[in-house]
Amino acid sequence: MKYEWRKQEKHLYLPGKKPELITVPEQKFLMISGKGNPNHEDFSERVGVLYSLAYAIRMMPKQGYTPEGYFEYTVYPLEGIWDLTEEGRKSSTLNKDELVYTIMIRQPEFVTEEVVDKSFEIVRKKKPHPLLDEVTFGTMEDGLSVQMMHIGPYDNEAKSFEQMKKFIEENHLEITTLVHREIYISDPRKTEQSKLKTVLRYRVHSI
Fold this sequence. Notes:
Elements lengths: L4 H4 L1 H4 L6 E16 L5 H18 L19 E7 L1 H5 L8 E9 L5 H14 L9 E16 L5 H14 L2 E3 L4 E5 L12 E10 L1
Antiparallel strand pairs: 1-3, 1-4, 2-3, 2-6, 4-7, 5-7, 6-7
């Protein structure tokens, strides 16, 4: 049976439209960092490189190589960790050119450095790209977090963040870092803006 993150890990990827407190375990990711406006081509090139590696791992058995512990699964959604440059923080309005980000795609537990090396080999042969050199593989643990599902355009996320901050305050929590995480459940190329689903997440601690 195929492992579907939408079903098996619903609590992490399909939260409700109101803020909630969860604990996010350590996870493995393919990651690439960048700076600037996510509407520009450089961002979509980085997304493309991540997906080519993620699908190379997913399709490995068809290439005649089955990693130890492999199971059928759906490729995880794209995630992003967002911050601003020093210059961007000084501005009273959001200047997207000053955004700093790390985008990533989670990998199943069976994925090891060896499996990732193999995926690079496959992609370099089939679809070489200079940005491949910037992709890293590692683990990340959000731990205690407040998250909610934001429905609608990315530019309206501020309203959802306000709700989250209110919830954090009311529950005697504090945001650990102003860097926040977004998980893109919808494909923006195929979904109209008003229906986009994005998980928003802050790491928090009790006070």
